[in-house]
Amino acid sequence: MKHTKWIAGLVGIILGLIITFAIPTPHGLTHAGMVVLASLVTANIFWIFNVIPSFATGLLMLSSWVILGATDFPTAFNIFSTTTMWIIIGGLGLGAAATKTGLINRIALKIMSWFPANFSGQTLALFTAGTIISPMIPSAHPKTAMSTPIAQGISNALGYKPMSKGSSGLFLAAIWGFLVMEASFLSATAQNYAFKGLLPNKFQSVLSWGNWFIMMLPWTLIALVGGFFLLRFLFRPHNDQTVSKAFINQQLTDLGPMSREEKITGGVILVAIVFWILESTVNIPAAVTALVGVSVLVATKVLTPNDFKTRLSWNTIIFIGTVMALGNVMQTVGLTTWLRVILKPVISPILGNIWITVIALPIIIYICKFVVVSLISTGTLIIIALLPFFQTTPFNPAVIVFIVTTSVNIWLLSYMDAPFLTGSAAVNNSMASKRSLATSSLGYMVINIVGLLCCVPVWQLLGVV
User: Fold this and answer.
1) Which residues cross the membrane (predicted)?
2) Which whole-number Å values give the CA distances from 171 to 137, 156, 205, in the listed order?
3) Residue 421 pLDDT exceeds 80
4) 279: burial class by Cβ within 10 Å (0-12, 13-18, 19+)?
5) Which of 7, 155, 182, 444 places its Cα 20 to 30 Å from the Cα of 65?
6) Which tens digit of pLDDT belongs to each residue from 353-396?
7) Domain map (residue ranges) of the chain
8) Dist CA 169 CA 230 (whole Å)
9) DSSP characters for 322-358?
10) Which pLDDT score, from 0 to 100, does residue 231 have?
11) Helices (H) then strands (E): counts for the chain
12) pLDDT tens per residue across span 237-247
């Protein structure tokens, strides 16, 4: 495996050098465009084969633009001063506090105590808890690491054997609620902001927190209802008897009353969500709201300076910044215009009609996931490939972000979804069989396309299609 990485890395570097220095610059493209194209080819190979950490690849890519004269430093690294980067940092800070204080765990357990203690009831509880918690933590890994052990405890309390239908179903309900439903809210994962940040500025304004929720509402309802009945059909045990909620109640008892830190965190997050929804009305940028919220948490000692070192994924933040830089720089050096001419015969039929787009594009992304494991890398590559066509599509390119966000989250093979692997590791890979993973993912892939199709009328009413 190590040799494969280094061979891939060497191939990527050689290809980059050939494109930069050996191939004549095509008509319609500048040398600066060739440099950016070469760096993109090399970076993609590095990302696909994980040659070095993704954020380091991204930093090298941006640095190569400056070293080889494609652009200057302020242009290459401009993205790190934008509001998108700061809302990611602020959002991750709020999520770190919610996880640290145990607030998220308490909310999830409380919701589960309201539902019947059987497969159907607790599946619905996991769906509900995950959907409610999603906008509070903009990071998938903590949510899956927290939710699957809760699902395992419920499974054990209900008497399900490891890898059985019931155990597999509850594991997937946790994944579905806490991971899949991230697509419903802009603040539910940092990659949503990253994909939004790849759009030209004039198209980003439509993707406020409130607009995102409204435009994704049909998909949310289809994903929740369809997912619940899919898991119930595939995994509900034949003898689905209601048992005692002793496990859930005991965990709630062990937590004790809400701490001062939980109350402060809950209040700050609630206020932040309200201001995110009303962003266009109160005219306060979402990034400012998030940063004020984090500052309050620091001032009240809910978060400490050390938490910023250990609880925020800085490598992810840097990686997101480097991939977002591609959008503006590709336009600046004329690469998007050149690619639009080259790729038009293939891409135009897909993007020429919104109904074709919401069917064909997810299928293309599903296929890409067999090769590109990282969710954010897959989404980035797709958006960058389509970027040259955003000026000519008959619909607002913002909808491409929705399609990408919902479609990268598949687990047909477990390696396709890194947060999924985190959730599996949290329960020692003991809950779900490989067959259950594959069948549920196939079901999601169909439900996803149906949900996106149901969004189209809403997008039309809102004037983005």
Assistant:
1) 32-52, 59-80, 86-104, 170-190, 210-235, 268-297, 317-342, 354-387, 399-421, 442-462
2) 20, 12, 37
3) no
4) middle
5) 7
6) 999 999 999 999 998 888 666 788 788 888 888 888 888 889 99
7) 1-76, 77-461
8) 10
9) HHHHHHHHHHHTTHHHHHHHHHHHHHHHHHT-HHHHH
10) 96
11) 24, 0
12) 987 877 777 87
List the structure tokens of 433: 């069989």
Question: In this predicted structure, what is the pLDDT of residue 63?
Answer: 96
Nearest to 199 by CA among 309, 303, 84: 84
Q: How many residues does the chain have?
A: 465
DSSP state, 19? Answer: I
If you ran DSSP here, which 8-state letter would residue 79 be given? G
Residue 30 confidence (pLDDT): 92
Nearest to 132 by CA among 112, 153, 102: 112
Instruction: Map tokens 């892939």 to a residue.
Output: 445
Which residues have a Cβ under 8 Å from the Cβ of 73 and sit 6 or more positions away? 66
Q: Which of 394, 337, 403, 419 is nearest to 368 (CA)?
A: 403
Q: Answer whether 151's CB lies under 8 Å from 415's CB.
A: no
Q: What is the DSSP letter of 71?
A: S
Q: Which helix (H) or strand (E) holds 32?
A: helix 31-48
Which token pair is 2? 């190590």
**CB atoms closer than 10 angstroms to residue 202:** 11
Spatial distance between the Cα atoms of 21 and 396, rounded to a whole number of angstroms: 37
In the chain, the amino acid numbered 345 is P
Between 267 and 248, the higher pLDDT residue: 267
pLDDT confidence bin for 345, thresholds 50/70/90:
confident
- Could you give phi then psi for residue 271, rounded to 5 degrees? -65, -40
Task: Read off the tokens for 148.
Answer: 């699957």
**361 to each of 274, 344, 386, 400, how far by Cα in Å?**
33, 15, 11, 9
Statement: residue 289 has pLDDT above 80: yes
